[in-house]
Write a structure and sequence with these properties.
This protein has about 325 residues and is α/β, with parallel strands linked by helices. The chain has two domains: about 120 residues, NAD(P)-binding Rossmann-like Domain (Rossmann fold, 3-Layer(aba) Sandwich); about 190 residues, Rossmann fold, CATH 3.40.50. The strands form two sheets. A seven-stranded parallel sheet has the order 8-7-6-9-10-11-12, sandwiched between helices. Helix 3 links the parallel strand 4 and strand 5. The protein is globular, with a radius of gyration of 21 Å. The protein binds nicotinamide-adenine-dinucleotide (NAD).
Amino acid sequence: MTIAFFSAQTYEKPFFDLSTQNTNLKIKYIKAGLSVETAILAQDCEIACIFVNDHADAAALKALRELDIKLLALRCAGYNQVDLPKAKELGITVVRVPAYSPYAVAEHTIALMLTLNRHTHKAYNRVRESNFALDGLLGFDMHGKTVGLIGLGKIGIITAQILAGFGCKLLGYDMLESEEAKAVGVTFVPLDDLLAQADIVTLHCPLTPQTKHLINAQSIKLVKPGVMIINTSRGALIDGAAAIEGLKNKQIGYLGMDVYEEEGDLFFRDLSEQVIQDDVFMRLSTFPNVLITGHQAFFTSNALTNIAQTTIQNVQDWQACYPLTNQVL
Ligand code: NAD
């Protein structure tokens, strides 16, 4: 069987080639992302495999089904890019990789916090130019600061564990108040209280209709002036235009983003020779207190190994008609 592997990146190939060794699976690596226009590239394949910014909307799914594709294997955890009711209607099974390395994402979250706080990105450039002045590099102790975690699932809890090690006070907001999070020292509070009390707000919930633009003009009014906001979850949790206003009026003192609402047109490619058309993104990237990375929080060798192994295991389970533990229902 052949897997149409959309949005293929060169760094993924060694991991997937290794995982398909000694199996009956072949991979057709396709650089283009999945959309209704590109679905045809999956011709002669039995399975489609996609990543976070592919568009498995109703039209793309219909096009895949017309090619007789019955399995959509997501090599990521989030599935907001898939029209699940349509997949069900068409008889396309959807599987995912629910966790590949929550440590990778939690540790990158901390990297964004510490870089914004201690300005190490600026210090690196200064020292290379023999500028050893400290003006503009002033930070704060993480110890004793209040961090509000929105979403305390796998990644949120590990982030909380690391922050507990710094001596931070931890507030949490989640529909499920897990005992595991409480054991780490998280106190669950209503969202408005978290926003009002936290020095740092970090987002670890999925993108759903309820969480879209969770950070918006209204919620930015509730935060402590000068708050640090970190988003390593999904871009659309933050209303970009509202964040720009919040940065301009200094309600937001620091913003760290690994994800961006319209990242599908930007991330995972080299656009350094092109004129970026997204004015919200470009404005955000001009603030001295904004740090953006291009959806790299997951990007560790451990995570890529787990992604490849779980994706191929999901496909093999489906081929063998075994129960699918990672099916998205
Ligand atoms: P998870 O499912 O283990 O945890 C998500 C938590 O969010 C759960 O506790 C859930 O109850 C909570 N939640 C759901 N809806 C909520 C709401 N409306 N308000 C508050 N909390 C809510 O997921 P995870 O593995 O911890 O991943 C979290 C997110 O991280 C994913 O959804 C994904 O978007 C993102 N992610 C990003 C990267 C990256 O590279 N940047 C990699 C992997 C995952």
